[in-house]
Amino acid sequence: MDQVNQEQCSVIQTEHLTRNFGAIAAVNDLDLEVNKGEVFGFLGPNGAGKTTTVRMLSGLIAPTSGRATIVGLEIGRDNRAIRERVGVLTETPGLYKRLSVVDNLLFFAKLYAVRYPERQTEQYLRLFELWDRRDDLAGTLSKGMRQKLAIARALIHEPQVLFLDEPTVGLDPEAALMVRKLIETLRTKERTIFLCTHNLDEADRLCDRVALFKGRLLAVGEPRELKERLYGRRTVIHLAEVYAGLEDAIKLPFIKKVERMDNTLVISLSDPEKENPLLVNRLVELGAEIQFVNELRVSLEDLYLDLMEENDATD
What we know:
The protein is of the alpha/beta class. The chain has helices at 3-9, 50-57, 79-85, 101-111, 117-127, 143-155, 173-186, 200-206, 223-231, 246-250, 272-285, 300-314, and strands spanning 10-21, 24-35, 39-43, 65-70, 73-74, 86-89, 161-165, 192-197, 209-213, 217-221, 233-239, 257-261, 264-269, 290-295. A hairpin with a 2-residue loop joins strand 12 and strand 13 (264-269). It is elongated and about 75 Å long.
């Protein structure tokens, strides 16, 4: 891919990115590419190195080795320009609690030299439904509203890349839902969102692609593609009764594996949409009484836990 096309589709690239703290490698040999306009999930347990990665990518700390570019700018060389183009929501965002909501945003708008700070501040307070609370002290807001204000602060200068580090941690379910809906509204073709989280349901709902990470990269891809890569696709057929020898009698060339659990058959296939009708016809021919058919759904949590267990076993 030539350099022009690469810059058009990729906004974050890392090569062997590593950060050590003494003898401990918090981030080890990270090769990653994040595309323009996608919501990219960076998933891992607490202490996996997610926050360290964000701090490196936003130009706040230097890597021990390796390199990374953000919108074509190299960390370590172009840190000031990088910080002008990224917005960062840390896990514990520090708002000025004794300043009003509007003054919090105005302060950062002027810090970033936003051309029309008052207009930009009003725009984001209205977008995040905080305009009616603009004169209230930030410290009087609920946790959910403070998180919305913190995201508005990260966006006030219209960054090309938005880093969100555990944006729903510590929030009650209602506030967390409010923040997730807000993230969905921020998805645009021009803005890339890098979402660090250990909330797997959140990542499954919001992210175009995810990376599973624990000090080093374990897997990366679309959630569905990753699940199919590890587990394949499996059709579950519930029968009134499974008679002896039925599994062996099916004998269709596209079947990869048949597992029996009581009166249920779990059958691994390559293309269930095409192969399920043939499978059902064959079972009927064999006298099986089918009650219902569905696909075995594997959650991102299942994938995550299996990969983390495999990683721990190899360490």
